[in-house]
Design goal:
401 residues, alpha/beta, Rossmann fold, formyl-coa transferase, domain 3, 6-stranded parallel beta sheet, 3-stranded antiparallel beta sheet, 15% strand
């Protein structure tokens, strides 16, 4: 097996199971930081994400190349006993097993943590699910959207005049995957001290819940329930999107007292910083609508470029509402290589987001494009596991791989 040499996790091996996003995004994060990620997919079928995505090129998913970068693909039918045996052979040579099946699925296949830990006591099993591995809801099907609703996010997203909105991305799945990655690296640190692996249990609804700031505490102590507020942050002003002369919008965040003072000087209205209605954070919060209207009337007299230049010169945080074209044309994105071009056998050059965060000594990287289904079967089964040629041929005939 060729060892990856890029990234702080380059000496670690991940066996990735499961489909779609919550588990595979965790695998992407680990792979971006150098881990060897061997993705298991059903034979002749693969991960459904290979066909997902709002837009396609040549009939192929443009979502899959992002989430499957830096991974190797093997096929394995886990419903057959021989597939379960091969997984156990892989586990003996792995640091992590990552899965996002409904709880109980691996146990049904005889591959629960208790069984696998007997083979490899150092194994860290990363489990991502809708409701977690325990509790009365654990056996339910749990998609990211349901976790976002249960965790409190959906209720507070959108305009107050409309029903709850979707954020626009699969944020519940991605948050659960990110928390799973944090848990995996924490478990790795513990293993370095003790030699023992453990289970990382990341539930989508709990990952969302942990991002909800003081929502629970506010209700607990005051009975306050957060509502949808659209573009504003209630009682924090000014912090909003404001119109410009060409009809586009610029976000300005001038809610801190010193920043608000600088904003008023830029507006040619320094007296506003001393006005009792706006002089303090609490006063601006009480008069948020009137202040936003006043600022909006002023911003309408500027083009976006002139307004942003004035805000930057004045030390007031401001920015455009970016879309993909804006990101691709922005010099800051370019200077930090936030977006890179990745050679891909199906698409030529593919632009996608780079690895984050950036590490000064052991940076991660995109080392390989998304693999074809079963592209690494020979490498993994013949070279890594040492499966004998006759057995390998029989496994293919029986469609185990």
């Amino acid at each position: 097996m060729k060892e990856f040499v890029c990234g702080p996790l380059s000496d670690l091996r991940v066996i990735e199971m499961g489909t779609l996003l919550a588990g595979p995004f965790c695998g992407q994060l680990l792979g971006d930081l150098g881990a060897e990620v061997i993705k298991i997919e059903p034979p002749n079928q693969g991960d459904p994400l290979r066909m997902w995505g709002q837009e396609k090129a040549n009939g192929k998913s443009l979502w899959w190349p992002v989430v499957a970068r830096n991974k190797k693909s093997i096929t394995l039918d886990m419903r057959q006993s021989e597939g379960q045996a091969l997984l156990q052979e892989l586990v003996a040579k792995a640091d992590f097993l990552l899965e996002n099946f409904r709880p109980g699925t691996l146990e049904k296949w005889g591959c629960g943590y208790d069984e696998l830990a007997k083979i490899n006591p150092r194994l860290i099993m990363i489990r991502v699910s809708g409701y977690g591995q325990t509790g009365p809801y654990s056996s339910r099907a749990g998609f990211g959207a349901v976790g976002e609703a249960m965790g409190g996010l959906r209720y507070v997203v959108g305009d107050p005049t409309t029903p709850p909105s979707r954020v626009g991305i699969s944020i519940g799945d991605s948050l659960a995957a990110t928390f799973a990655c944090v848990g995996a690296l924490s478990a790795l640190h513990y293993r370095e001290k003790t030699g023992r692996g453990q289970v990382v249990d990341s539930a989508i609804y709990e990952a969302v819940l942990n991002m909800m700031e003081s929502l629970i505490t506010e209700f607990d102590k005051t009975g306050y329930i957060r509502e949808r507020t659209g573009a504003i942050l209630p009682n924090v002003a000014p912090s909003n999107v404001y119109p410009t002369s060409d009809g586009s919008m610029v976000l300005i965040a001038g809610n801190q007292d010193t920043v608000f003072s600088r904003l008023t000087k830029a507006m040619g209205r320094p007296e506003l910083a001393q006005d009792p209605d706006y002089a303090t954070h609490l006063a601006r919060g009480r008069n948020q609508k009137a202040l936003d209207d006043l600022i909006g009337a002023w911003t309408r007299t500027y083009t976006p470029t002139d307004l942003l230049n004035l805000m930057n010169e004045s030390g007031v945080p401001a920015g455009l509402i970016y879309r993909a074209p804006d990101m691709l044309n922005d010099p800051h994105f370019a200077a930090r290589e936030a977006i890179v071009s990745v050679p891909h056998p199906d698409f030529g050059e593919l632009k996608m987001q780079n690895v984050a965060p950036k590490l000064s000594e052991t940076p991660g990287s995109i080392r390989s494009p998304s693999p074809a289904l079963g592209q690494h079967n020979d490498e993994v089964f013949l070279e890594l596991l040492g499966v004998e040629a006759g057995r390998y041929a029989a496994l293919k005939t029986r469609k185990v791989i």
